[in-house]
Amino acid sequence: MTQTNLPPRKDITQEQWLEEGRQLFGNDMKQWKFVCPNCGNVQTSQDFRDRGIDPNGKVFYSCIGRFSNRLERGTIGDNKSPCDYTLGGLFVFSSKFVEGTPVFEYYTGDNPTPVGNA
Ligand SMILES: [Zn+2]
Description:
Layout: E1 10-12, H1 14-25, E2 34-35, E3 42-43, H2 45-50, E4 96-98, E5 101-102, E6 105-106
Parallel strand pairs: 1-4
Antiparallel strand pairs: 2-3, 2-6, 4-5
Bound molecules: zinc ion (ZN).
Zinc ion binds at residues 36, 38-39, 41, 63, 65, 81-83, 85.
């Protein structure tokens, strides 16, 4: 079993979450940065669009590697980034929940060590 050092679960409203994003990154949500809790990949909606992937429901929930060639992406515990991690799987490596749904943390430059690199 993978050990994690997740902080206690934090439940917030969608409005609180969006306000936090605006405070960190401004009004252009395409530039908001999210960090994959497994591999540490930092991703934006724009990164998804640049690869022809619809970012809706993905940018804060699944690592962009999930939508890449299987041979090139990492998975849980192998230290490769980006990876195939999603919060919709068996292991929820997030302590932030918006309206009951887990989300990736915003990238702040001071994020905890990713689980896959621990
Ligand atoms: Zn990842």
